[in-house]
Amino acid sequence: MAGPTLRDVAKRANVSIRTVSNVVNGYAPVSEELRARVQAALDELDYRPNLIARNLKQGRTGMIALVVPELDVPYFAELAREVITAARARGYVVMIDQTDGDGERERELLGRDSRATMFDGLLLSPLTVSAEELRARGNRVPIVLLGEHIFNGSFHHVAIDNVAAAREATGHLLGLGRRRVAAIGDQPYATGETAQLRTAGYRQAHARAGVEVDERLIVPTPHFHRRLGAEAMESLLALPEPPDAVFCYNDLLALGAIRALIRAGRRVPDDVAVVGVDDIEEGQYSTPSLTTIAPDKGEIARQAVNTLLATINGEATAPAEIVVPHRLIVRESTGGS
């Protein structure tokens, strides 16, 4: 049985079909008295707009895409949940895909013959594609970038202040009296921009504390995975003067580092204090629980979705860097509770 139509609502509210359409779609100002009358009729008839028909009329799909490097990385899974929630509140469906951090897959997505016609806009967290390649992409689907590149004025970009976050995490460790603070996760090459920002914050914290950086304590990793965190920690423990604290560039690296410390008979935080980044749920229940930099994932999602939809609707301003808050959560791995 077909549901109520705009004509049915107009008849119940004793107004024109155009007035009902204006209320439902927000196309034009309507007096409060008329809006209340139409809304009452909508509620009484349990009217549900035909989103498919509306999108077809507007030349839209009603879908946006979220593309991340790795869905099995908890941070991206938790962010995807927040994006779905934010998009649903705006009447959009989210398609999710992953690139595996592969440059060719990222370039294919941005190419002229890509699947871009399947969705109205793209939230993209690129790992390997450069800013120049993004600007030269073959399709013109609206894009908002998430986190992984330094803002250069070409696209809207939503991220935390990675320098400030790393400075705060490292400063916390130095403030505990630790003087050999290691860093795990540096990526000193063109596409490792987020890692480089965190290394910059790590160095700034040392400079502010008047502590010289021992370059041997900065360990690069090609990815932010548990295994690489454990391997990096093992190499640090083999130094003549091993660290008494470690700042890891994400929580997975930190959890791997803690595992390596426990295997080596080191106590966390007594012998080595550990801080991560991302505030994934796993860190709350690890032993010890993990001190971390917590980005506001819900706000990242809301800002990204709202900015993308504004771009789709032609309402967005010039590309901007949207900085989302973060906070340090102190748990057992640095002596908290």
Automatic annotation (TrEMBL):
In which domain of life is the source organism classified? Answer: Bacteria
What protein name does the entry list?
DNA-binding LacI/PurR family transcriptional regulator
Q: Which residues form the HTH lacI-type domain?
A: 4-58
Q: Supply the Gene3D superfamilies for this chain.
A: 3.40.50.2300, lambda repressor-like DNA-binding domains
Q: Keywords on this record?
A: DNA-binding, Transcription, Transcription regulation
Q: Which CDD domains match?
A: HTH_LacI (cd01392), PBP1_LacI_sugar_binding-like (cd06267)
What is a GO molecular function of this protein?
Answer: DNA-binding transcription factor activity
**InterPro entries recorded for this chain?**
HTH_LacI, LacI/GalR-like_sensor, Lambda_DNA-bd_dom_sf, Peripla_BP_I
